[in-house]
């Protein structure tokens, strides 16, 4: 069940024996896509790197994952249909530059606190669309590490379970850091509580 305001979230539980340790969001997406492609259940992921790991307060300590200090969290799983192909993601989908389009399931996007109000288990994506001049982008970029870039008059912010967007010209798209190439149309949605992760 997705998180509700004021409720405890996660539980003290180590990575199960059949869990898979991943060092990045991209690796997590590849492991999950491989499981789906072969009609296997999605594995529990042990996170030792990536933006979702950072969002959850992960330390990157592999030994912790199988210890009594490990925390297990239910999280949402993102799905994106990009020009007819489906991809899974744990952290984010980004199209273009200067926050042209971003759909976040994690608070962090590299060194940027891009989704300061987001939560990876609220059943929603934090979606940002912007049309920023170079000067505006420089100002926004300086504030992104602290999450102080919002509100901004030229950044549209939405928190939604799904979104569709069509670009006038194809834009380069990255899914959890994996380059998909140039894309015209994106359909992005979140599957609540679809995954368990351990940090």
What does the radius of gyration come to? 17 Å
What's the CATH class label?
Mainly Beta
Main sheet overview: 11 strands, mixed
CATH architecture designation: Sandwich
Strand-residue fraction?
Answer: 35-45%
Distance between the termini: 19 Å
Parts with pLDDT < 50 across at least 5 consecutive residues: none
Number of strands: 11
- Which structural class do you get from the secondary structure elements? alpha+beta
**Helix coverage percent:** 10-25%
Oligomer: single chain
Topology diagram in text:
Blueprint: E1 11-12, E2 20-22, H1 25-37, E3 45-47, H2 51-55, H3 62-65, E4 71-82, E5 85-89, E6 92-95, E7 101-104, E8 125-130, H4 134-143, E9 155-160, E10 162-175, E11 178-198
Task: Give an overview of the whole structure.
Helix content is 16%, strand content 40%. It is of the alpha+beta class and 199 residues long. Strands 1, 2, 3, 4, 5, 6, 7, 8, 9, 10 and 11 form an 11-stranded mixed β-sheet that branches. Strand 2 (20-22), helix 1 (25-37) and strand 3 form a beta-alpha-beta unit. The radius of gyration is 17 Å and the shape is globular.
């Amino acid at each position: 069940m997705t998180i509700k305001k004021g409720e405890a979230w996660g539980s003290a539980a180590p990575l199960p024996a059949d869990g898979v340790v991943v060092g990045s969001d991209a690796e997590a997406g590849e492991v999950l896509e491989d499981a789906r492609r072969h009609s296997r259940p999605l594995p529990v992921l042990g996170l030792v790197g990536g933006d979702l790991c950072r969002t959850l307060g992960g330390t990157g300590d592999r030994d912790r994952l199988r210890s009594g200090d490990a925390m297990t969290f239910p999280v949402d799983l993102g799905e994106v249909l990009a020009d007819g192909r489906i991809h899974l993601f744990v952290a984010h989908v980004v199209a273009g530059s200067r926050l042209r389009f971003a759909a976040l399931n994690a608070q962090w996007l590299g060194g940027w606190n891009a989704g300061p109000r987001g939560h990876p288990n609220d059943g929603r994506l934090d979606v940002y669309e912007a049309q920023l001049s170079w000067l505006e982008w420089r100002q926004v970029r300086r504030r992104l590490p602290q999450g102080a870039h919002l509100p901004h008059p030229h950044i549209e912010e939405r928190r939604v379970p799904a979104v569709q967007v069509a670009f006038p010209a194809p834009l380069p798209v990255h899914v959890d850091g994996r380059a998909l190439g140039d894309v015209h149309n994106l359909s992005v949605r979140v599957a609540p509580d679809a995954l368990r992760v351990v940090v």
